[in-house]
Q: What sequence folds into this?
């Protein structure tokens, strides 16, 4: 699937994440830096369940950002991205 096809598709949940993974996997230098930071509205287990697709992903609780405002989480992700 192309990026545009993924965006317009009716895929949801794990199937959509799989399509995103396959898209990034077709660009090897990008998959190496693709990480997910799972928000607190999803269970911590989500990061564990997706570890085979997105190995360096984490849940906000595991990085000390549980119950933190979205703006602070956004700043954290930008700082982490600059370290990659």
A:
């Amino acid at each position: 699937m192309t990026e545009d096809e993924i965006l317009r598709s009716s895929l949801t949940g794990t199937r959509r994440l799989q399509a995103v993974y396959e898209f990034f996997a077709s660009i090897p230098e990008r998959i190496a830096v693709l990480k997910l930071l799972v928000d607190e509205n999803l269970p911590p287990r989500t990061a564990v369940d997706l570890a085979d697709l997105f190995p360096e992903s984490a849940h906000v609780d595991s990085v000390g950002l549980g119950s933190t405002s979205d703006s602070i989480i956004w700043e954290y992700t930008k700082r982490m991205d600059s370290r990659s």
The mean pLDDT is 83. The chain is about 50% helix and 5% strand.
